[in-house]
Each structure stands twice: as C-alpha cells, then as structure tokens.
Amino acid sequence: MTDIIKQNNEVFGNYYNRINALILKTKQNVVKNINYEMVELYYAIGSTINELIEEYHLEASQNKILKSFSEKLTREFGEGYSVPNLKLMKKFYLTYKGGYTLCNQFE
C-alpha cells in the first residue's frame, strides 16, 4: 500500500487536499451556524425577559427577576447567563426588535 501512495503521491496529495478543504469548509460553516444560533438565542431570551417585565409591569423588580433567572440558568447551563449578560440580551432585543439593522441606514 505504501508503494502505491509513493508512486501516486501527486494524485493522493490532490485528493487529500480536497478532503482537507471539505473539512475546513464544514468547520467554518459550523462556526457560522453556531454564531447565528447564539444571536437568535440571545434575541429570544431578551424578548422573553422584556415580555415578562412589560406584561406584568415588573420594571421595579427587574434586577431581582434577572438575578433569579441568572442563578437558575447558570446552575443548569453554566456560565454566560449573568445578570449583566441578561440585561445585554434584553437591550439587544430592544435595539433590534423592529428589524432595524445597520444595513437599513444605507437604503
């Protein structure tokens, strides 16, 4: 088998490079998709928090609510759900809830 590879080094090298490119492209797509999903998640969390606070007029209790959510989410899912992060998710939702993006400024 080794003799075949040595004799056809260029051919095998080309196929190896193709396989390598497929793997790298897939890894890049995975990263893009994960980033997209995370943005969607943060937007949805922000929307849910905003809905609760607005619907039940809980603005005065927002910090206590976020602290409770933060503690429970961190226990269940690990880091990333601190009170400041949850506030940023809500702010992110409020900023983009109308579908307004930077691209809209140029239209």
How does this structure look, described?
- The chain is mainly alpha-helical and 107 residues long.
- The chain has one domain.
- Helix content is 78%, strand content 0%.
- The chain contains four helices and no strands.
- It is elongated and about 75 Å long.
- It starts with a helix and ends in an 11-residue tail after the last helix.
- The relative contact order is 0.09.
Short description:
The protein has 107 residues and is mostly helical. It contains 4 helices and no strands.
Straight-line N-to-C gap: 61 Å
Number of discrete helical segments: 4
What is the count of distinct domains? 1
| Strand residue content | under 5%
Rg, alpha carbons: 24 Å
Q: Helix/strand/pairing class, anyone?
A: mainly alpha
- Give the SSE string: HHHH
In this structure, how is the largest beta sheet organized?
A: none
* Poorly predicted tracts of residues: none
Number of DSSP E strands: 0
Helix content: over 70%
Q: What does the overall shape look like?
A: elongated
* Mean pLDDT score: 90
Layout: helices, strands, pairs:
Blueprint (H helix, E strand, L loop, with lengths): L1 H6 L1 H47 L6 H16 L5 H14 L11
Helix pairs in contact: 2-4
